[in-house]
TrEMBL record:
Ranges for region Disordered: 1-22
Organism, scientific name: Microbacterium insulae
Protein name, per record: Histidinol-phosphate aminotransferase
Keyword Repeat listed: no
Catalytic function, reaction form: L-histidinol phosphate + 2-oxoglutarate = 3-(imidazol-4-yl)-2-oxopropyl phosphate + L-glutamate
EC number(s) reported in the record: 2.6.1.9
Database matches in InterPro entries: Aminotrans_II_pyridoxalP_BS, Aminotransferase_I/II_large, HisP_aminotrans, PyrdxlP-dep_Trfase, PyrdxlP-dep_Trfase_major, PyrdxlP-dep_Trfase_small
Alphabetized GO MF terms: histidinol-phosphate transaminase activity
Length: 364
């Protein structure tokens, strides 16, 4: 046929997708990549060996479709989460992004709305719009915190079908009190998702929103293996909710959405949860080192209960970002004026970032 290839605008694309830009954090091959809040510590060798054995076993039956109900994996997540949860309260998918997409496919969609307190995780609006729903951005108070009464008033006013509460919040690192979750739940007519992607990096004695599940059939608590579990490349996210809500997600998932290899790898990794989570304390130490050092360099770090730090006081974020890039360090310009976000890496990676930042000076 030949000829000129069509442009996106020329295709019969859904009207509501026109003008949207895809998620696009740069994937540049730099020596120090601290831009997408990964766990930069590899999976320990003994666990990797066990995962390989489990995957090899699963391969023997890969001619068959996998367990559609990923029963063993759901039991593994229930045991890991505790709080008396059982497998009928657990759902999982290829990353918590897909878990959130399932929630939106079931409870969002055309003619409906989803709500979050901006700035928050950039995929919420994208996932919302991709299901045909409308995104409503609420606001935060001083230093990105949310007050219970203010949050409840905003949610009551918007009356959204789905609310996303990111706890702690990406990209700011801000903790979220259970009092806010309770007030938002009481004010919301629809489903309330508490996204605890970074929960394992919060102080040990903090209560999870999982403790609030009993009696709240519209509450969802999502987690991921991508961060604390160092499993981003395997793509495994999960949530806990009332069994009836889990039934709603079965209506929208693709049959056999979790491959036999993913199920085997994730179940094996979960059996080694303490080893997989071994690096969390080390990462929290590097995070706090970043906060203290960028502050000493004259920037303003925000309180973080995650594996990253958002810091302000950057005169020109794009030139500082570029200067770090030129020194082999990739961090994230999340679009907040005068701010940049950096993920806590290994001790050496963190040192490389801090040394590079110090060498740039504030007039980059
Ligand atoms: C708040 C939050 N939720 C969910 C995700 C998605 O994680 P994944 O799809 O890798 O499980 C991320 C990833 O950065 C995140 O920051």
């Amino acid at each position: 046929m030949g000829g000129v290839s069509p442009r996106l605008e020329d295709l019969p694309l859904r009207d509501d997708l026109r003008g949207m830009t895809p998620y696009g954090a740069p994937q540049a091959p730099l020596p120090v990549a601290l831009n997408v809040n990964e766990n930069t510590h590899p999976v320990p060798q003994d666990v990797a060996d066990d995962i390989l054995d489990a995957v090899a076993l699963a391969l023997r039956e890969v001619n068959r479709y996998p367990d559609r109900e990923f029963t063993e994996l759901r039991e593994g997540f229930a045991a890991y989460l505790g709080h008396g949860l059982t497998r009928d309260q657990i759902w999982a998918a290829n990353g918590s992004n897909e878990v959130l997409q399932h929630v939106l496919q079931a409870f969002g969609g055309p003619g409906r709305t989803a709500f979050g307190f901006a700035p928050t995780y950039s995929m919420y609006p994208l996932l919302t719009r991709a299901t045909g729903a409308e995104w409503i951005a609420g606001g935060r108070g001083v230093d990105y915190t949310i007050r219970a009464d203010d949050a409840a008033a905003q949610v009551a006013d918007a009356a959204p079908d789905v609310v996303f509460l990111c706890s702690p919040n990406n990209p700011t690192g801000t903790p979220l009190g259970l009092d806010v979750i309770e007030a938002v739940y009481d004010a919301a007519p629809g489903v309330v998702v508490v996204d605890e992607a970074y929960f394992e990096f919060a102080p040990r004695d903090e209560r999870s929103a999982l403790t609030m599940l009993p009696g709240r059939e519209r509450l969802v608590v999502s987690r991921t293996m991508s961060k604390a579990f160092a499993f981003a490349g395997a793509r495994v996210g999960y949530l806990a909710a009332d069994p009836a809500l889990i039934d709603a997600l079965r209506l929208v998932r693709l049959p056999y959405h979790l491959s036999a290899l993913t199920q085997a790898a994730a179940s094996a990794a979960l059996r080694h949860a303490p080893t997989m989570l071994r690096m969390v304390d080390e990462i929290v130490g590097q995070r706090d080192r970043i906060s203290a050092t960028v502050e000493a360099l004259g920037y303003t770090p925000h309180e973080s209960w995650t594996n990253f730090v958002l810091f302000g006081g950057v005169d020109n974020p794009s030139s500082t970002w570029q200067a770090l890039y030129d020194r082999g360090v990739l961090i994230r310009d999340v679009g907040i004026p005068h701010h940049l976000r950096v993920t806590a890496g290994t001790e050496d990676e963190t040192t490389a970032f801090l040394d590079a930042l110090a060498s740039i000076g504030s007039d980059a």
